[in-house]
Structures are given as C-alpha cells and as structure tokens.
Amino acid sequence: AIGAPQIVSALSSEFAVAISASDDHTAVVTETGDLFTYGVSEKEVLGHEGIRWQLSPKKVTGVQRVVSVAAAREHTVLLVGTSFPKPSEQLRCLLSTHRVPSDELMPKKFLQRSLQQLCAQQIAQ
C-alpha cells in the first residue's frame, strides 16, 4: 500500500547512517559518505540534473563525505565532513549523554531496553 513502510531493495548493499524524508523526497547517507535521493523534485532538490521523478534511490554525483542530511519540501541540506564516527562510537555518545557509562560493554538486552526507555521519554516530552 502507498504510504506503508517498505524495504528499499535498491540500497540493500549499502549501510545507511542518516535518512531524512520530506513529503516529496527521501535522502539517504551511507557509511562511505555517499548521498542517495529519490522521490519527486519540483525544485531540483534531488540533486540529479534534469530529473523530476526518481522512483528508486540514485547516487548523487559530485557529492562526497556527507555526514548528515535534512530533507524538506523545497530543499535538501547536507553536512559534509572529513571523517565519520563508527556506529559503535555514535551509540556510545548517545548513551553517555543519558548517563549510561560509555566505556563498558553492555549486554544487548540492557542496551535495547535503555534505548526503548529513551525513545519513550522523548515521546512523552
């Protein structure tokens, strides 16, 4: 059904580190710093010259070292850097900001429960 979550098989060989979606398009940053976009581009927000409809993710050429992305109706904003934190470092950083020791290895069940509690707290606020 349209509007229901779906697996994006075109990105199955990539590891996404950041995703942002607007009403009309989606932007995905991979662990290698590449940017993929797809959707509708009324104002050329996809970054693919001359393409208004891109139904599956397409790599944006000429863009490298993307760290983060924000998609909105009439623009796509990129944060470009020179290095990427590893997913485990990002997780440690997230946990340390919520007073969970970042230097110890936590059991998966504890970690999962903590992240669920964190999300529930954010929603409640």
UniProtKB/TrEMBL annotation:
RCC repeats lie at residues 33-82. The keyword Repeat applies. SUPFAM superfamilies: RCC1/BLIP-II. Keywords: Repeat. Coiled coil: none annotated. The keyword DNA damage does not apply. This is Uncharacterized protein. The lineage of its organism: Eukaryota, Sar, Stramenopiles, Ochrophyta, Bacillariophyta.
